[in-house]
């Protein structure tokens, strides 16, 4: 049963969270049963050199057992979900509906980053729906609603795009928020994108482009400057949105003055490549091959970061878990906007590091540099900067990073 519709401003019922969590537990139990059954078959069938003489008998003996486990699990899961669905309208007056807390939003964002495509496809209530937000509250993209939400709206719009497995409220780190600081110092009005980072980057990019078109059209004062500030995967989503906005002839593209990427894996991140190689190694042996299924639960958003996919053409018609070289169609930086890139490096300035990284994203990837010239992004030298002694999340809070942002965006 799908979750009931809520208005953009309606708080969330805790029963919806229980329904989403129960569905995940049931699905996890069934997936683990599949893995255990496959390993049981592989081990019980005997060595391959003997022709696996016991394979068929083992399957005949174990299939009813594992089938019963899955059947009982589904039955229990359906019963829990139906009971919670009936309980929701009765419990709402007692439990109340409350805005989600920071802890709950952080957990849900992490789940969406890892399993977001599955959550969306299965209609799980924990799947994040893309929204533009302010102070964690969804915005209604209508002139009257925006005028009420922003009585001092300026014509300088700053839209901040978070990275994988996090949410828009996590732009605040160690008491600092680049958006709030730029509003104070340069007169921007900050708006924050909240999205399911487990979906394909291009799927999010297309949806983001549509939201920006609605936002600019409904903004209560004429938009003079639109700036996109993106962290990590958010930079890929922003570049993808620029592509779709250009292709669709959106009005916001003509308002875009600057795109700033912080620690964006324009050409991929080693962590996803490492996970890909683990899948391949586990698949070498029939005894360990079932374990590779668990690694392949990771989302489309995660696998897009192997090479930095931003277009539908980068993944459509392909097995995203298959081994292959980086053969992306190049996507240049958006024309007509100043484009900037900041890379973090955990090493202090002057330290000898063969391949410097911020702990997650290599410096070359963050600066758009690629060994194949056609894939290298054209960030001007004056628009690239390395924050030495800075890890990936520290790009959100380091004073020197903000100083560079302020310097670039005040020009």
Please describe the topology of this protein:
Elements: H1 14-44, H2 55-95, H3 102-121, E1 131-134, E2 137-138, H4 143-149, E3 156-161, H5 178-186, E4 189-194, H6 201-218, E5 225-231, H7 233-247, H8 252-255, E6 256-262, H9 270-282, H10 289-295, H11 300-304, E7 338-345, H12 363-366, E8 384-388, H13 399-409
Helix pairs in contact: 1-2, 1-10, 5-13, 6-7, 9-10
Task: Please name the defining characteristics of this protein.
411 residues, alpha/beta, Rossmann fold, 2 domains, 8-stranded mixed β-sheet, 13 helices, 8 strands, disordered N terminus
Give a structural overview:
This protein folds into two domains: 14-98; 131-268 and 328-409, Alpha/Beta hydrolase fold, catalytic domain (Rossmann fold, 3-Layer(aba) Sandwich). The chain has 13 helices and eight strands. The chain has helices spanning 14-44, 55-95, 102-121, 143-149, 178-186, 201-218, 233-247, 252-255, 270-282, 289-295, 300-304, 363-366, 399-409, and strands at residues 131-134, 137-138, 156-161, 189-194, 225-231, 256-262, 338-345, 384-388. Strands 2-1-4-3-5-6-7-8 form an eight-stranded mixed β-sheet, sandwiched between helices. Strand 3, helix 5 and strand 4 form a beta-alpha-beta unit. Helix 1 (14-44) runs antiparallel to helix 2 (55-95), helix 1 runs antiparallel to helix 10 and helix 5 (178-186) crosses helix 13. The model is unreliable at 1-10, 39-46, 91-97 and 274-293 (pLDDT under 50).
């Amino acid at each position: 049963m799908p979750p009931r519709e809520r208005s953009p401003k309606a708080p969330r019922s805790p029963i919806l969270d229980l329904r989403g969590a129960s569905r995940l537990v049931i699905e996890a139990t069934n997936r683990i049963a599949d893995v255990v059954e496959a390993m049981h078959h592989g081990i019980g069938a005997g060595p391959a050199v003997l022709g696996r003489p016991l394979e068929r008998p083992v399957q005949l003996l174990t299939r009813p057992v594992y089938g019963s486990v899955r059947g009982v699990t589904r039955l229990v899961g359906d019963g829990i979900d139906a009971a919670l669905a009936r309980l929701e309208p009765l419990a709402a007056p007692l439990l109340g509906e409350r805005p989600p807390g920071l802890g709950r939003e952080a957990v849900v964002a992490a789940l969406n980053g890892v399993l977001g495509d599955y959550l969306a496809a299965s209609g799980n209530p924990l799947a994040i729906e893309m929204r533009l937000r302010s102070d964690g509250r969804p915005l209604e993209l209508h002139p009257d609603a925006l005028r009420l939400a922003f009585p001092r709206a300026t014509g300088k719009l700053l839209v901040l795009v978070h990275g994988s497995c996090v949410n828009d409220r996590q732009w605040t780190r160690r008491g600092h928020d680049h958006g709030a600081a730029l509003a104070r110092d340069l007169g921007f009005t900050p708006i924050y994108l909240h999205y399911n980072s487990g979906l394909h980057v291009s799927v999010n990019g297309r949806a983001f482009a549509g939201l920006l078109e609605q936002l600019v059209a409904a903004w209560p004062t004429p938009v003079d400057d639109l700036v996109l500030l993106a962290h990590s995967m958010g930079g890929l989503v922003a570049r993808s949105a620029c592509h779709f906005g250009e292709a669709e002839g959106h009005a916001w593209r003509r308002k875009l003055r600057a795109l700033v990427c912080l620690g964006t894996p324009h050409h991929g991140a080693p962590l996803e490549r490492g996970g890909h190689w683990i899948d391949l190694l586990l698949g070498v042996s029939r005894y360990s091959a079932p374990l590779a299924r668990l690694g392949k639960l990771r989302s489309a958003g995660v696998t897009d970061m192997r090479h930095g996919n931003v277009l539908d053409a980068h993944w459509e018609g392909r097995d995203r878990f298959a081994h292959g070289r980086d053969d992306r169609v190049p996507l240049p930086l958006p024309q007509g906007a100043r484009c900037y890139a900041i890379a973090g490096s955990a090493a202090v300035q002057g330290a000898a590091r063969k391949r410097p990284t911020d702990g997650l994203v290599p410096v070359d990837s963050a600066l758009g540099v690629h060994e194949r010239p056609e894939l290298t992004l054209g960030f001007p030298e004056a628009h690239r900067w390395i924050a030495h002694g800075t890890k990936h999340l520290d790009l959100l809070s380091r004073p020197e990073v903000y100083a560079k942002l302020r310097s670039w965006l005040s020009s």
